Amino acid sequence: MDLLFTQLLNGLTAGAEYALVAAGLALLFGILQIVNFAHGEFYMLAAFILYVLLAVVGLPYYAAAPLTVLLMACAGVLFYAIVISRVISRPWQIQLISTLALSIVMINLAIVLSGPTPRYVESPLNNVILDLGSVRISAQRVLVLLGTIVSFAALYLGLKYTRTGKAMRAVAQNREAAAVVGIGVPVIGLVTTVVAASFAGLAGALIAPLYAVGPTMAVLVNIKAFAAVIVGGFGNVKGAIVAAFVIGLLEAASTTLISTEYTDAIVFGGMILILLFRPNGLFGKAVRVG
Amino acid sequence: MAVEKEPLLELRDVHAGYGELSILKGVSFGVGGGTVTSVIGANGAGKSTLLKTIFGMLKVREGDVSFEGRSIAALGTVKRLKAGIAIVPQGRCNFPQMTIRENLEMGAYTRSDDGIEADLQHMVDQFPILREKLHLLAGDMSGGQQQMLEMAMALMVRPRVLLLDEPSLGLSPMMIDEVFTSIRSLAEVNGMAIIMVEQNAVQALKISDLGVVIELGRVSATGTGPEMLNDPDIRKAYLGLPVI
Ligand SMILES: Nc1ncnc2c1ncn2[C@@H]1O[C@H](COP(=O)(O)OP(=O)(O)O)[C@@H](O)[C@H]1O
Ligand SMILES: [Mg+2]
C-alpha cells in the first residue's frame, strides 16, 4: 500500500513535470504552428534562475519561486522578439533549425557558465513532511501537484472565457479568419509565447527543488513532453496534458512492476503502439485548445 | 437604383501586389452608400487582390483609398474594421471548433459597445438557419450554411462597406438566389456599400448598380448593371451571352 502510494506520487510528480513543459509546446504548436525544440531548455533556464535567486541572491523560496515565473515570462518576450516573430511566417525548416539552434546554444552556455556538476536547489518545503496515516509526503510535492492543477485550471478558464483566450483559440483554428475579424495575430503570438515560457518557468520553480539542476536536465524531459504532445493529438493542449500524466504514471508503474532499466523502452514502445492504432493521437488531430 | 453623388469609398489609381509582384496597376472607381457593385474579370485578374487592398491586408503602394472623404491608405485592418469596412474572403473563413454563437461574437471582436448581443439576435432573425444551430460547431454545418455564417460574422462589424469575395461559390442555385436577394436588401435597407467579386456575373450584374471589369490589374470598363448586361463586348468576353 505504502509503496503503491509512493510510486503513484512519483508518477504524478513526473507527470506534472512533463505536463508543464508539454502544455507550452502544445500551445506554441496549436496556436502558432511552431515546433519549439528549445522548450525543454526554458525549463532548464528556469531551474537555474531559481538556483541563482536562492543560492546567490539569497532570496527565500517563497519570493524566488514567483520571481522565477515572472523572469521566464520576460524571457518569453525576448524569445518572441528575437526568434518567433522572425520565423513565424517562414517555412517550417527555418523554424525547426532556429529553435534547435537556440536549444544547443542554451545547453552549451549553461555548461560554460555552470560547469557539469549538478546543483541542488533548497526549498524549505522539502523538509516539511506531511503525515497522512500510513503514508508520508513532502510539502514540496504537494505544492507541485497543487500548483500544476491550479495553473492548468487558470489556463483552461483563460482560454475559454477571456477575450484574449478566445482570440488565441481563434488564431489556432483559422489564422486568416482571425485577421479578418480584427485579431492582431502578432499580439496573440507574443501572448502565446509568454504563456508557454511562463509554464516552463512554473515547472522550474516548482520541480527544481526535487531533482538535480544541470545543463542537460531537460533533454529527456523535452523528449517525453514531445511524446505527450504527439500522443495527445498535435496541438491539442488538453490531450498533451493528459498524455503527460499517463506517461508519468506509466513510468512509475513499470519502475515498480518491472524494472527501471525498461522504463523508457516501455513508455516509448507504448507511444509507438498508440500511434499505430491512432495516427492522429489519442484525442484527434484537431488543433484544439479549449 | 440611384447612385449617390458623393462616393462613400473611392479608389484613385491604386497600385498593390505581393512582394516583388505588382498586381493592381492603377485602379480607380468610387461607390456610394446603399449600392451594390460587381467586380468581374478573368481568373487571376486581381479581383481578390483588389478586395484585400481595400480591407488593408495589402498595402496601397501608389494612389489612394479614401473612406467618407478621408484617406485610409495608411490604416491597418483593425482600424478599417473599426471605421466600418468588413470582408468575407474567398474560402472558409470561420472558426470551425467554435459554436455559431461564438463565431458571431468573434465577428464583433473589434467592437466594445454594448449593442453586440442585440445585433446577434438581429442576425439570427435574418438568418433563421443560424438560430436553430446557435449552439452547434460551425465546422459541423454545410458549406452553404457556413457561407451564411461568414456573411453574418462580417455584418456583426456593422459595416458601412462590405466586401464579398465570390459569395455564391459552391452554393445551390436556390441558395444563390437567396444570397443575391439578401445582398440587395442589405444595401438598400442598411445603406451599405457592397462590393462583390462574382464568377456568376450575369446574376450579379442584375442586382448591381455598378459593374467594374478588371483586366490585368486595371479597370477596363465600368457601367451601370444594365449597361454592362447590354454591352456587346462584355456580353461576349465575360457573360457568355449571345451578342444582341
Ligand atoms: N499571396 C499571394 N502571393 C503571391 N501572388 C499572389 C498571391 N495571391 C494571389 N497572387 C497572384 O496575384 C494574381 C491575382 O490574384 P487574385 O487577385 O487572387 O485574382 P482573382 O481573384 O481575380 O482570380 C494572380 O496571378 C495570383 O497568382
Ligand atoms: Mg479571387
Automatic annotation (TrEMBL), chain A:
It is a multi-pass membrane protein. The chain crosses the membrane at residues 12-35, 42-63, 69-89, 96-117, 137-159, 180-213, 225-250, 262-279. Its main location: membrane. One of its GO terms (molecular function) is transmembrane transporter activity. GO terms for biological process: amino acid transport. Keywords: Amino-acid transport, Cell membrane, Membrane, Transmembrane, Transmembrane helix, Transport. GO terms for cellular component: plasma membrane. It is found in: Cell membrane. Belongs to the binding-protein-dependent transport system permease family. LivHM subfamily. This is Branched-chain amino acid ABC transporter permease. The lineage of its organism: Bacteria, Pseudomonadati, Pseudomonadota, Alphaproteobacteria, Hyphomicrobiales.
